Amino acid sequence: MKIERLSQDKIRIFLTFDDLLERGIQKEDMWREIPKVHELFSEMMDQAYSELGFDASGPLAVEVFALPAQGMVVIVTRGKMNSHEVERSSEDDDADDEIYEMEVTLEQSDVVMYSFRDFEDVISVCKQLQSSALTEDGRLYSYNGKYILALEPALIDSSRHNAVIALLAEYGEATSVTYAMLEEYGKVIMPEAAVREICNHFKF
Question: Which Pfam families match (predicted)?
Answer without folding.
Answer: MecA
